[in-house]
Amino acid sequence: MTATKVKFSFAGHQTFPLRQLWPYKAYLYATKLPDLKQDPDYGLPKIMRLLGVGANMVDAVKFWARACGILAADDTPTELARLLFAQPDGLDPFCEDPTTLWLLHWNIARLPEKLTTLWFLFNVFTKNQFTKDDVFKELSAFLEKLRLEGAVKRKPSDMTLNRDIDTILRSYAPKYSETGRLKLKGARLDNSEDAVDALFRELNLIGSSQHGYFFNRGQHQSLSPYLFAYCYIEFWQTQALSPTIDLNKIAYQAGAPGRVFKLDELTLEDYLMQLDELTAGKLKWIEQTGLRQVVCSAQSAEELAVLKADLLRSAYHA
Predict the structure, then answer these.
(1) What angle, rounded to 10 degrees, do the helices at 98-109 and 225-236 form?
(2) Rg of the Cα atoms in the chain
(3) pLDDT tens digits for 278-309?
(4) Dihedral (C-alpha) 104, 108, 111, 115: value to the nearest 10 degrees?
(5) What is the reported pLDDT for 153?
(6) Could you tell me the domains of the chain?
(7) Longest C-alpha distance within the chain, in Å?
(8) Are 107 and 69 in contact (CB under 8 A)?
(9) CA distance 310 to 314
(10) Over the stretch 100-132, which tens digit does the pLDDT of each residue have?
(11) Which of 150, 179, 189, 200 has its CA 20 to 30 A from that of 313?
């Protein structure tokens, strides 16, 4: 991936973290959109009533839904959205299964064009323990380097970057005071609604303490091996369909499962060793004479599509 070919994106979330029912509400909105557009009273008030959110949240719901692969650019529901939320046979109609959270995280975190600051945090930023200021400084330097190279015309403002970072950290980790408790604001928890309802916090990928934040690397019990295999294939499809990919790329390359899911090498190897059984031999983990790599024997787009669909359904029904 070269910088000159990457599209970057900032803001759009209106500083709201993704909340529990927003993906489903966005899908519901998308399925009703053709009829809504025929209504002479169609407009923001109707959208607000349908989504059950305030006017300032409507754009945030749409932004997160597009970024997570639930809405297409024209606000129509994606194939994934129908698979997850369609009644009565959707895999997870109300976004309650942790597999859905991992899948939505994968969709938004692996590509820089969805929300560049989030992608940077999971794929480029290397500190395990950090502060918000650490992220800002390194992201700003990263973007300035790209600007000097001509990959971007200009950097976003410091205010935009700070808002992105703050929103993403609130999306994945609670805030703590020096005593280890959630900060209080008056008589209420600071960002209390977000603390209860921020969807990605359930993944426990980022923790917080009085010193700042830290990545929780290693084993994640709720990450299904079937979903990992599904995501691995999506990563493999970005690698010019080379028959083999070595462990270092799977662990450390931007957009790879090891980076996006914050897996250490031992945990990653455990997932990779299960690929042979989960895919009926189409993906095989090979470790010999110093080589550690995955070999893929499935080549056609049709074969891969069927395999991915089977893996995704198995992730919910295993």
Answers:
(1) 20
(2) 20
(3) 999 999 999 888 889 998 887 688 888 899 99
(4) 180
(5) 78
(6) 3-109 (no CATH), 116-215 (no CATH), 225-317 (1.10.10)
(7) 70
(8) yes
(9) 6
(10) 999 999 999 999 989 999 999 999 999 999 999
(11) 200
